[in-house]
Structures
1.
Amino acid sequence: MKRVTRADRPSGPATADDTYDVIVVGGGPAGENAAQYAVAGSDRTVALVEHELVGGECSYWACIPSKALLRPSQVLATARHMPGVGEKVSAHGVDVPAVLARRDGLTRHRDDSSQVDWARSAGIDVVRGRGRLDGERTVAVTGAHPDRPRILRARHAVVLATGTVAVVPDTPGLRAALPWTSRDATNLLEIPRRVLVVGGGVVACETATWLRQLGVEELTMVVRGSRLLPRVEPFAADLVTEALRAHGITVRLHAAIRQVERPDVRETGIGRIHGGPVTVELDDGTRLEVDEIVVATGRRPTTSTLGLDTIGLASDAAITVDDHLTVEGVDGDWLYAVGDVAGRAALTHMGKYQARVCGDVIAARAEGRPLGGARYRASADHHQVPQVIFTDPEIAAVGRTAEQAHADGFDVEVLEADIDVAGAALSRDDFTGHAALVVDRATDTLVGATFVGTDVSELVHAATVALVGHVPLDTVWHAVPSYPTVSEVWLRLLEARRS
C-alpha cells in the first residue's frame, strides 16, 4: 500500500487546521520510534513536531558526539599497551583536530536533513516548531509566526517525547558566568587549559575523561557526595575514581561551590570559552581560577511549556505513565509519554524501547486489537535497565546493585571475580577489571550484574538477557563462554559459588 503523507499534498497556510491519526511532540530517538511504530504497515498518518533538530539530544549533543570524543583515546591506550604496536605509536596524545572533525562528521555538523529524509521515507510528516498541548488531542505549533500557531488535531493519540534540559544550580554568580553544559562539552571547539567540572554522575565523569584526554592541563571535579557515580556498585565507582586521579584529575568529594565570579563574560557560542578566567570559591574557603566551568549536576524534564494545564494537569506537573506508556491522570487513553520526559529511565536506549511499546499500543488501540501480549507493556523499566558508562575503565551494569536489592527485600548472594582470564590478557597487557553478579537466592536468578574494566561494554547484554529471561544460574552454567574471550569471566563468576 502506498503511504500518503503531507509531503504529497498541497500545503496549506500556517494557520491550517490539520488532522493526523497520531501527533508526536519531540523529534529525538524516542519520538522517531514512537511515530514509526504507530503507523508502520498501515495508512495512518503521523506528524513529528520538533523545534530544534530531528534526531534530538542524543544525535547531536549527547550520546553520539560524546562517544566520538572518548573512543580515539581508548584506541590509543590499547595500542600503547600492546607489544609490537606500542613501540610504533607516538608518545603524544590524539590528533585533536582530527578527533573533532570525526565527531562533526558523525553528527553531520548538526544538519538533520538525513533524519528528515528518513522520516519522510517512513511516512512521517516533520512539522517544524515548538509544540504544546491546546486541549484534548490538540497540539498548537509555534514557528516563525508566534501569533499564528498551526493547530494540529489527532484522531487517536498524542505522544510527548520532549526529553530533558540541563539544570544549572542557582549558586551565586554561576549562571551569570555562562558556564558550559553538556552541549558545550560535547561540541567543544576550543580546549580550555583549566577546567572545573561540577558534579559526580555519569555526564560529569565521562566529560572529565575526554577533556583530560583532549589536552586540558588542570582539571578539577567538585562533588557534593561521598563518592562518584552513587548509583553503581561502590567497587566500580572506586576503580573509576582511582583511574581519574591517576590521569591527573583532582577529585574533591564532600565539596560544593559557594560563589563564582567572572568579570569578563561573553556569549561566544556553543563549545567556545565563554569569556575570561573564572574565580570559584568552594564551601571550605578554597579559591580556584579556571578558564571554564562545566556544570553536570542533572537534568529536568521539559514539561513547563507543554500546555499540560489545558488538559487538567498542573503546568509544571511531573508526567507519570503506566506500562502502556499512557499518561496517568488523563482520561480517554489518548495521551502518551516516552523517553526522558516520562521520568522512568533517562537513557536513549530505554526511551527507544518505550517508544516501540508505545507505538505498538497506539496501533493496536487504533485497530481495535487487545493489549494482552507482553509486547504491549514496558516491563524492562522496572529494575531491568542496562547502562554503559564510557569512562576509563568502562562500567557496564544492569538491574539492581547489591545495596538496592537488599533495600527491596531480596535475600541475595553476591558472586564476584576479577576479570583475569585469557581473553583479557590477550586484549591488552594492562587489562584490569572486576565483575559481580547479584543473585536472588529464592529463585537462583540474577537481579543485577556489574562489570568494570577495559572494554567491558559488550559483556552487559548477556547479563541483561539472563536477568530479563529469569534464567536460573544452574542453566547459565551450560552457556559455555568461547575461549579465549573476556566473556570467560562468566565462568569465573559461576565458579565463585563452588569454592
2.
Amino acid sequence: MRGLQCLLLFILSLVKGTEAYGQPDSSKVRNKFHYGFEIGSFFSLNNKIPFWQKANQFGAVPQSGNSLYFRQMIESKTDTSVGFFHADYCLDLATVVGEKPMIIIPEAFLKLNFGPFVISGGRFKEVLGLVDSTLSSGSITWSGNSLGIPQVRIAIPEYTKLFVPWLGFKGHYSHGWFGDQVSVKDYYLHQKALYGRIGSDKSRLRVYGGLLHHVQWGGEPKYGPSGPGDDRFTDGAFAEDWFTYGQVVFPFRALREDTTGYGDFELMNRFGNHIGQIDIGGDINLGSMNLLVYKQNIFETGQTFSSLTNMDDGLYGVAIKSRREGTVFKRLVLEYLRTTNQGSYRSGLPRLLGLPDRYFGTETYYFNHMQYIDGWAYESETIGTPLLVPQEEIRPEKQSYPDAVFYNNNRIIAAYAGLNVRLNSIDLTSRVSYSRNYGALFTPIPPVDQMSMAVQAAIPLKNKNAFLKVNIGIDQGDLINDNYGAQIAYQRFW
C-alpha cells in the first residue's frame, strides 16, 4: 500500500492553482482548447509583495517583491452538452526570475466526467464553501491562498436535483498528500463536503446549507519528544492504519479495548487535526441585481461543532452582483470576520436555545495543533482565510511564540470590502481590509490594527484577447511592515 501511495504521490506532484495572477474575463475568450500566457513583474519598497497582491493567489506568486515572471496555461474544456462522458485537463506553469528564482505549477489536473459525477486527480485552483469566490476575502478554511494540495477526488460538483426540481445537492470526497512540510513529513489530507440547496436554478429565492470537513492525519514528525511525558506520538510516528482512517472520516471518538500503538494524545482528543466549517445562506434575484448573504461557522476538533459554543465566530458576508450587461457596476462584496471566541466563552445563540454546554471553556486555537506544528498551512502559506497572518509575515516584535505558524495571531476582528466596476472597457477591481489583531489565547498581544488595500486595472488592448494589467498594493499598520508595491503584466489568450 505504501508503494502505491508513493507512486500516486509522484504522479500528482507533476500535477500541481489558473487565474493566480488574475485573468480578466478569460471565460469570454475560452474555447474548447485554450492557451494563454502572461509576462509581468512585481516591484515593492521592502522587497515583499503587498498583502492583497499576494493573498488568495493560489500560491502562484514570487517570494520576492522585486521579480519578473513568465506564465503559460493550457486548458481543455470539452463541450458538456455532447455525450455522457467527457474529459477535462489543465496545466499552468509559472517561471519566476529575480532574487529567488523558482518554477511554480499552480494548477494541473485530469478530470473524467460521467454525467453529474466527476473523478479527478491533481492540484486544483479552488475556493470551497458558501462564499462569493470571485471577490471574497477568502473562505474561512479553504480560501485559495496557498498552492492546492495534490489529491484524488470523486465529486458531484454542481447542484443536482434530488427527488424534486427545487431540492438539490452537491459534494465531494477526497484523499490528498501534504508530503514533506516543515515539522511533519508524509502525512495526508482527508476532505469531504456536502451542500444542499432549496430552490432550482431559475428560482428567485434559494437557500443553502452545507458542511466542509478537512483532516490532517498520519505521517512522521520531524521533532522528538519535548520530555518524558510527551504522548503526542508512538514509536516516532502518528497512527495511520485503517482504524485511524475510520476515526478520521467519522470522528466520534470510538473506543477499543486494544490501544497498543496509539498515543494518549490521540485517544483523549481526535485522530488527526480536524478543521471545518458549517455554512448557511441564501440568494435572491432582484431583477437587475442578485443578492447573496452567507455565514461560515468554523469548527475544530469536533468540540465547537457539537456544542456550537463559538457561533459568534466566523465569516459574515453580503455580495451584490449586477445581472445586466454594459453597466458600470459589476459586483460588491462586504465581509466581517471574527475569530476571538475559539471556545473561550459560550456565545449567545447556544445560551438562547438552551443547548448542552459540553465543551465550555475548552479553547480550540484555530489553525494550530500540537502534533502538526505547521498548523493549517501548506508550503508555509495559510490554507484558510489569509487574514489570519502566519508568523513569518508579521513584525518580529509581535511574535510572542516565534517557533509556530499561527500561535502569534489567530484572534482577530476584520472588515473587508471588494468592488468590481467597468469604466468603458477598463475593468477595475479594488480590495481593502481593516483588522484588529489580538495575538492568540495563550500568547496575547496588545491589540494592533492593520490596513491593506489593492487596486487593479485590466486594460484591453487592440487585440480583444490581450490585456495590460496594473495592480497597486499598500500595507499600513502595526501587524506587518508598511509596504507599497506594483505589478505590471501583459496577458494574451487564444
3.
Amino acid sequence: MSFKRFFLISCATALITACQSYTQENQKIRNDLYVGKYKEAATKLDESSLSTEGRNFALFGMEKGMLLYLQGEYPNAVKSWVQSDKKLDDLYTTSISKTTASFVINDSMSDYTGEAHERVLLPLFSSIAFFANNDQNNSTVMIRRTYDIKKELEAENLGENVFKYDAFSHYFSGMVFETKKEWDNAIIEYRNALNNVRSDSAQNNAFRSAEIQILKDIGRLAEFRNRREILSDIQKSNPNLTWEKHNDLLKKSEVFVIYESGNSPVKVPKDIVLPTGQTVVRISFPEYKDIHYKSHSAEIYINEKSIGKTVIMQDIGKMAKQALENRRVRDIAKIAARVIAKDVAARKLGEQNALAGLAANIFSIATETADTRSWTTLPDTIQVLRVSVQPNKEIKLDLKPEYNSTINYKINLAPGEKKLIRLRTFN
C-alpha cells in the first residue's frame, strides 16, 4: 500500500471517529441535568457549538428553555421556547437551497426542524410555565397554539398515531378553564382528553388510571351543569364511579400536582448496509435509545396521609418513537438516494484518478452520519394528581417519588384558590 493511500485511509478513520453524534456531544450537559445541576448544564450549553450554529437555533432554544424552566425561571423559559417555535414555524416549508445542501452532505447539516412531538411540546410546556407563574390567560393562548400545530401536522400526516399518547394537553387545558370558571369549556377539553386515552385499545391499560380521573372530572362538572346526557353515558359504562361534588369543591382549595418523570429517550445512529450493484453503501438512520430510570410515579401525602399516586397523562417517550417511525420510510428513501449518488460520483472519479476516487469515497463514508439531534432535556412522561384541601389552613403536602427523596411543602390557600406544584425527577 502506498503512503498516500495509507494516509488517506488513516485520515478517514480519524474523521469518522471525530464525527460524534449530537447525543454524544451533549452528554456532559445531560450528565449535569440528571443530577439536578441545572445552572452548570446551562453554562455548558451556552459554551457549546449549539449556541452559535445557525442550523441549530431552534434546538438550542428548546434545550435552554427547559434548563431555565427547571430553575423556575418561567418568563425566560417561555421566551426561549417562543423563539424556537417561531423558527420551526418558519422552517415548516424548507427552502430549496437548504434541501439541496442536506442532500449533498447529510441531514445534520440542514436546519433542525423538530420532530412532531417536539413542535407540540414547545407551546405546551410554555402553557405550564405561564400557569405556574399565575398567568392563566397566556396559558390558554399557548394551549391553543398547541392545537393549531397538531392540526397542521395531522393535515400533513406527520402526527399520525403520535398524539394518541397525549391526553395531557387537553386535560391541562381543562384545568386552566376550571381556574377561570369556564365550566363548559373545561368539559369539552376533558372529553377530548378522554377520547385520546380511548383512541387505541393497546394503550388502554397504560392509561386506565388517567381514564378514571378524567371521567370523574367530567362527571363532577356535568352534574354541576346539569348535563344529563353526559352523566347517562358515564353511568352506563361506569355505574359504580363516584366523584366529589363540585359545589363542595368550590368551597375548598385545590392543588394541581404535575410530575415530570424520567428522561425522554435520545437518538443514536443505526447503520444499514445496502448493495448497489458494484459495491455496497452504508445508510445511517437515527433510532431512539431509552434512558433508564426507576421512579415511574409519585405518591402524594396530605398531613402524612396518603391521597394517591400520580397518573400518566402523556407518554413523551412513546410519542418520540412514533414520530420517528412515521417518517422512517420516507427518510430512508431520501438518504439512500443521496448515498447512492455519492457512491456513483466517487466511482466515476475513481475511473479517472484512483486516488481521487478513494478520497471521494472516504469523504462519502465519513460524512454519511445519522442526524441524532433531538430535544434531550425532555422528561419521559407527564403525570397529574389533583388534591382538594381545606382553605385558610396550613397544610403539609409531601411528594414522594418511588426512588427519590420526599419533597415537602407547606401551603395555605384561600377558598377556591388553585395552586400548581410541579416536580421533575431523573432516576
